[in-house]
Each structure stands twice: as structure tokens, then as C-alpha cells.
Design brief:
The complex is a heterodimer of chains A (312) and B (371).
Chain A: H1 7-36, H2 43-48, H3 60-67, H4 71-102, H5 107-119, H6 122-132, E1 135-136, E2 144-145, H7 147-154, H8 169-197, H9 201-209, H10 214-242, H11 246-252, H12 268-275, H13 281-309
Antiparallel strand pairs in A: 1-2
Helix pairs in contact in A: 1-13, 3-13, 4-8, 4-10, 4-12, 5-8, 6-11, 8-10, 10-13, 12-13
Chain B: E1 5-14, E2 25-35, E3 40-44, H1 51-59, E4 66-71, E5 74-75, E6 86-89, H2 101-110, H3 120-133, H4 149-161, E7 167-171, H5 179-196, E8 199-204, H6 207-213, E9 216-221, E10 224-229, H7 231-236, H8 241-246, E11 253-260, E12 263-266, E13 269-273, E14 280-286, E15 291-293, E16 299-308, E17 312-318, E18 327-332, E19 345-349, E20 354-358, E21 364-365
Helix pairs in contact in B: 2-3, 2-4, 3-4
The chains are: A mainly alpha (312), B alpha+beta (371).
Chain lengths: 312, 371
């Protein structure tokens, strides 16, 4: 413990960080809560201080959120993307991490390759994905195909309208899911590989002595010993999933949907960004709080589940 | 079911870590030994002597650089660990931390496939049988973290025994236990080995541990076997200075001496007749229990203090000829009439507790019989 006489020094050293946090994090959060519960808030009126501000507290904004045109679609898209991508990417990351951990030559090389998406701008990756799934032209006038459709046609399939005008929700979602999973892999692989490398090798030697089949080693030893790391990537994965936004912008642009279907792929964060330019800060704040509540509840459920599943 | 283990010219060479210097490390050098069926063998030596490497080669977790290993008549040199049918107890037990004691013990049985596959009831019965053997059947639903070191050790032994291995290997099985528990557990290991009759090899750096429970001990140094034999025989008849020094607590006293005309001199004292030994400079080893207090004894030392140990006393003294800083003799407490103030203590020697070693090779010089 710091001597109480010298505590002011400690506070002095902490001051820059505390001031910045108060101004740019704590105050905005408190303000968001305030705005969310102010009915008919008008920012211009607030700034000009015309007359006495007469906003009343209430839940009008939340009603607006739930009645908002496109809220249900945003909620559905967010939920589907999260629920599909988190388990799949976690499982893939686990398999890749185990594979990486078991090879000796080129391990660092492959580690770097798998980590590349992490250091690449997600909008840029989105544009590349858009090009890969692209198809130019309509009907008989299709002039060129992206690499994905080329591959499908090479194997005798028919080219699919993944993301262009007139494309359906299912192909749209498939492209998004592939993109999000691929984008989520590096961080998960990194965490799981780190966990694997800290597992005592003697457990594997003991398993070997006991003639344990490979699959059993994986399910009965590796996964339980990694369970704290798995819980960590799942929980952070869910949190990240509910905040999904930039991946859709990366592929479909800020229309949040293929041409002609604006907003069909919107998410909750996307919806918040939608209403901000309309000066409806109350609605945006309320939507942010709704998102916070969802993430909070899901994280609590996750923690409860992992308490039972995470060993030691 | 059980069988002898034959080690034939077993050698393990580790390549140098630094490729430029290119110096290899010979961990085990040309080890030849037939471990008799159903015996308990202690591999003994200081750290780095190759005892653990030998054990891991028997287990198959390490591959020998050359030489062969047989279990009974089967050459298992190329056989992988999984197929050797061994039980191995690791130094830190390597119990799976997320499984209960029961799950840990059941684990090897659940791995059995094909014709060896067992029913759930049979597995449970076997697990409880193994647990009872090591007296942990009360703890079956605990996790390893809820057990004491000694209990974890028993679980590890039960896990190794449950599949009825052809060979049981123990790597420093007692090193993580406190002194009291160590004493108790080594008796336990002895009892379990006797009851099961499984050929057992264990590794230790503690000579007392090895001597107390082994049928035979193998003393190793820098990868080379120094001596193999029954513990008492090795103690009473060491092949060289290293073995003599390594066995026995308190350790053997070592003096520089010389032999002249069939008589052994330590300093100026003519301490013993050594017929049949040529005149030469020698290293003399005298066991602490080889001294007899005798006012007219031929050997003298300068006593510094007396350590009381209950039944015995240990007289600590110095001698100019001693190669160790102190000379330690163990005398029955009843005969303790040493006067430290007098500055001298005189001893007679028990001839069979005195060993001569060549000054250069440190090999034993056998004192001939008087004819």
C-alpha cells in the first residue's frame, strides 16, 4: 500500500488518464442514459437555451426504438450473424490452433498468415470480398463473374447472385457470415494457440502412455484444459457479434444492403448510425441502451454456462 | 503376464543445441542389464546421470540412439509408447486436473478398444480395485487439486496400475512428498509391487530411498552404469569411489593414504594391515560406522563436537589426511566417552568397512585375504 502521505502523488500520476476517461467515456455514457430517457429532446433547443428547457423524462424513446421501421430486421440480422458466426469461428479457430500447435516446421510462417486478417483494414477486406463474390450485368447480359462464381461454374454449377442488385437475403447472409468468420479467426487462434502452448506437455505424455486415441485426447484433455480460453473467445465473440457493423459496410456500403434493398442487412449499430444524422439523439441513445441490455444479458448467460463448463 | 526387461547396449545421444560447437551429449552410454521378472529395480544417481532418460526409453517416450529393449522375448525398441502396455507415474503425477479421481483412474480403461473393450461395470470394478490397493477408494469423487501430495501420488499409481501393465515405471515418485510421507509412501510402493508382482523400475537420486525398497539398484554416473546389485552388496562392496561416496548417510569418510609393505598409512598412523596390496598412494574410504572408539587405537583425529542422535552419537572431527572437511564417525551412545578438550580422539577400524581406491582411476583395490 502507498503511504497515505504520498497518495496525492499516485493520484497525480493517474490524473491524465482519469481526466480523459471522465471526459470521453464516463460523461458520454451518463449523457447517453440521460438522453435516452428524455422525451422529445431537441439538441438545437438545448444549445440555444431558448426559454426554460421543458423536456420531460419518460420512455418515449424506447417506444420509438421498438416501433422503428427496420428495428426488427436489424435485430434479426444481428442475432443471426452472431449466433451463426461465433460457434463456427470458435470451432474452426480451435481446430486450426491445434493443427498449428502440432506442426514444427513453418509454424511461425502459418501463424503469420492466419494472423494477417487481424492487421488488415476490415473495410478493405470487405471490398476484396465484394470483388470475389461480384457479378456484373443482369440475365443474359452478365459480362463478368467474380472468382467465387467462376469456381462454382468450373465445377458445373450455376453462378449465383451473391451481392448484386436483386440478390436474395440468404446469399447476402452467407457472404457476410463467411466474411465475419474469416475476420474473427485470427484473434481466436492467437488466444487458443497461446493457451495450448501453456498446457503442460506431460498430460499428453500421460495420455500417450494410456494409449488414448487422438479424438479422445482432443475432447477429453485439450478442450477441457483450454476451457478458460474458449470461454473468453466465446464471450468476446458474442460481444463483438452484437456490435457488427463495419463488415456490412465493407461489402455492401453504408446503404446496409445490396443495391435496391437499402437497409435489408442493417444491424443494431447500423440503425444507431442511421438515426444520428436525423438529429434524433434520444432515439439513438435508447437504441444504444437496448443493445447494451442485450449484450449484458447474453454475457451473463455466457458466464453462467461457462461457470459449469470451465474447469478449474 | 509380467516379464523381464532386457536392455541391450542401450545408448542415447542428444544432439548439441548449439549446432556450431557440435558437441553431443551422451545421456546414456551402452547400458546392458536384464531386469528380472517381478522385481523392483531402483535407478540411482545424481542429476544428469541418465537415469530418467533410461526410464523414458523403456517407456518409449524417448527413442534410443542405438541398442535394443526387450519385454520378455518381444523386441519393443521400435514399438510406440501406446503399444507397450506400460504404466508410468510421472514425477509431478500429471493427473488430469479437470477430472475426478475416479475419472482419472477410469481414463486408461476407457481407451481400450477392440477385444479388450470393457463394460462400464467391469471398468468401475477394476478402478475401485486399484483404488483400494493404494487406499484412496474414499476419495474417488474429489478433484486432484483437493488432494494432498501423497494422495495425488497414490492416484497416479492407481491410474498406472489399473490397466494391469506389463511394466510399471516410476519417475522420482517420492520427490514431491515431505520427509514423513516419503517414508510411508516408499513402504507403500514396496507393498503394492509385492502384491501385484509387476516388474517395476523407479528412478531416484535419493540413495536411502533406493536402498530401502529395491531388490536391486543400478548406480549411474554421467550416462555410464557404475554398479548393479543388491543394495546391501553394493553398499558393502562398492566398485569404485563414486559408488562408495554416493551410497550411505552420513557419507563415507575419504582420506588420502598410502600402502607400504602390506600396511595402510593414513598420515603417520599405521591403521590397518592390507595384505596383498602393492605399495602405492591410495584413497581410503571408511564408513562412519567403521570406527571403534579405542584409547589405544592406531588412528587419530581432532574432535570438534559430538552430535547426539539418540541411539547413536556422531563424532565430528578433523584430520589433516581427510579429503573432506570433516570426518564423521558413528558410535553407539553408550560408548561415548570422548573428551573434546583433549584435542584428540583415537579409533580402531573395522577392516570390512575400509575400502581402498586407486588414486588415479578411483577403482576399488581389493584387499587380499591373508593366507
Amino acid at each position: 500500500m502507498v503511504d497515505s502521505k504520498h497518495q496525492w502523488k499516485a493520484w497525480l500520476y493517474l490524473a491524465p488518464a482519469i481526466v480523459l476517461l471522465l471526459v470521453f467515456t464516463v460523461w458520454p455514457i451518463l449523457n447517453t442514459v440521460r438522453l435516452a430517457f428524455l422525451n422529445n429532446y431537441n439538441s438545437l433547443a438545448a444549445v440555444n437555451q431558448e426559454e426554460v428547457v421543458t423536456f420531460t423524462f419518460g420512455i418515449e424513446n424506447f417506444r420509438k426504438v421498438f416501433n422503428y421501421d427496420g428495428f426488427i430486421i436489424a435485430l434479426r440480422n444481428t442475432a443471426v450473424l452472431t449466433i451463426v458466426t461465433v460457434p463456427v469461428s470458435t470451432l474452426l479457430a480451435l481446430l486450426i490452433a491445434v493443427a498449428l500447435n502440432s506442426i514444427k516446421p513453418l509454424q511461425k510462417f502459418f501463424q503469420t498468415i492466419f494472423f494477417l486478417p487481424y492487421v488488415t483494414n476490415s473495410i478493405a477486406i470487405g471490398m476484396v470480398f465484394a470483388a470475389m463474390f461480384n457479378r456484373v450485368g443482369v440475365g443474359k447480359l452478365i459480362t463478368s463473374h467474380g472468382i467465387v462464381n467462376n469456381i462454382i461454374m468450373f465445377f458445373g454449377g450455376e453462378s449465383i447472385n451473391w451481392i448484386n442488385a436483386g440478390s436474395d437475403l440468404v446469399p447476402n447472409m452467407i457472404v457476410l457470415i463467411i466474411y465475419i468468420i474469416w475476420n474473427a479467426l485470427p484473434f481466436k487462434i492467437l488466444v487458443l494457440l497461446g493457451g495450448l502452448q501453456s498446457v503442460n506437455k506431460q498430460y499428453y505424455e500421460a495420455a500417450k502412455v494410456d494409449s488414448t486415441p487422438r479424438w479422445r485426447v482432443f475432447t477429453k484433455i485439450t478442450v477441457p484444459l483450454l476451457s478458460p480460453m474458449i470461454a473468453y473467445v466465446v464471450i468476446t465473440g458474442f460481444i463483438g457479434g452484437f456490435k457488427e457493423y463495419s463488415s456490412i459496410v465493407g461489402i455492401f456500403g453504408d446503404q446496409m444492403g445490396p443495391p435496391g434493398a437499402k437497409g435489408s442487412l442493417n444491424t443494431i449499430v447500423g440503425m444507431i448510425y442511421d438515426v444520428l444524422p436525423k438529429q434524433d439523439y434520444g432515439l439513438a441513445s435508447a437504441a444504444a441502451l437496448v443493445l447494451f441490455a442485450i449484450i449484458f444479458v447474453v454475457t451473463m448467460i455466457n458466464m453462467q454456462v461457462s461457470k459449469k463448463r470451465v474447469h478449474y | 503376464m509380467h516379464m523381464k526387461i532386457v536392455l541391450e547396449n542401450l545408448t542415447k545421444i542428444f544432439p548439441s543445441r548449439n549446432k556450431k560447437s557440435g558437441e553431443e551429449v551422451v545421456a546414456v552410454n551402452n547400458f546392458n542389464f536384464t531386469i528380472p521378472d517381478g522385481k523392483l529395480i531402483g535407478l540411482l544417481g545424481p542429476s544428469g546421470c541418465g537415469k530418467s532418460t533410461t526410464l523414458y526409453m523403456i517407456s518409449g517416450l524417448q527413442k534410443p540412439s542405438s541398442g535394443k529393449i526387450f519385454f520378455g522375448e518381444d523386441d519393443v525398441t521400435e514399438l510406440s509408447t501406446e503399444n507397450r502396455g506400460i504404466g508410468l507415474v510421472f514425477q509431478n503425477y500429471a493427473l488430469y486436473p479437470h477430472m475426478t479421481v475416479k475419472q482419472n483412474i477410469l481414463f486408461p480403461l476407457q481407451n481400450l478398444r477392440g477385444k479388450d473393450k470393457m463394460t462400464k461395470e467391469a471398468m468401475l470394478a477394476r478402478a475401485y480395485e486399484a483404488a483400494r490397493l493404494v487406499q484412496i477408494d474414499e476419495l474417488m469423487d474429489r478433484k486432484p487439486s483437493e488432494l494432498s501430495g501423497g494422495q495425488q501420488q497414490r492416484v497416479a499409481i492407481a491410474r498406472a496400475l489399473v490397466k494391469m501393465p506389463r511394466v510399471l515405471l516410476l519417475d522420482e515418485p517420492l520427490s514431491n512428498l515431505d520427509a514423513r510421507l516419503r517414508l510411508q509412501t516408499r513402504e507403500e510402493i514396496r507393498r503394492i509391487q509385492k502384491e501385484t508382482g509387476i516388474t517395476t523400475v523407479f528412478v531416484t537420486h535419493d540413495q536411502e530411498e533406493a536402498m530401502s525398497i529395491s531388490d536391486m539398484i543400478v548406480v549411474m554416473k554421467l550416462g555410464v552404469v557404475q554398479q548393479i546389485g543388491e543394495p546391501q552388496k553394493v553398499y558393502d562392496d562398492p566398485a569404485n569411489l563414486f559408488v562408495a561416496k554416493f551410497l550411505g548417510t552420513p557419507p563415507i569418510n575419504v582420506f588420502s593414504g598410502k600402502v607400504k609393505d602390506g600396511k595402510l598409512f593414513i598420515g603417520e598412523d599405521c591403521v590397518l594391515d592390507v595384505p596383498g596390496v602393492e605399495d602405492q598412494e591410495v584413497i581410503v574410504g571408511i564408513r562412519p560406522e567403521g570406527f571403534i572408539l579405542d584409547e589405544n587405537g592406531p588412528m587419530h583425529c581432532k574432535p570438534t563436537n559430538v552430535e547426539v542422535m539418540g541411539r547413536d552419537v556422531s563424532i565430528v572431527s578433523t584430520s589433516d589426511a581427510s579429503l573432506n572437511p570433516l570426518v564423521r564417525s558413528i558410535i553407539n551412545a553408550d560408548n561415548n566417552n570422548v573428551n573434546i578438550a583433549s584435542g584428540v580422539v583415537r579409533y580402531a577400524l573395522k577392516p570390512h568397512k575400509v575400502f581402498l581406491f586407486n588414486k588415479e582411476t578411483e577403482e576399488r583395490i581389493v584387499i587380499g585375504e591373508v593366507k
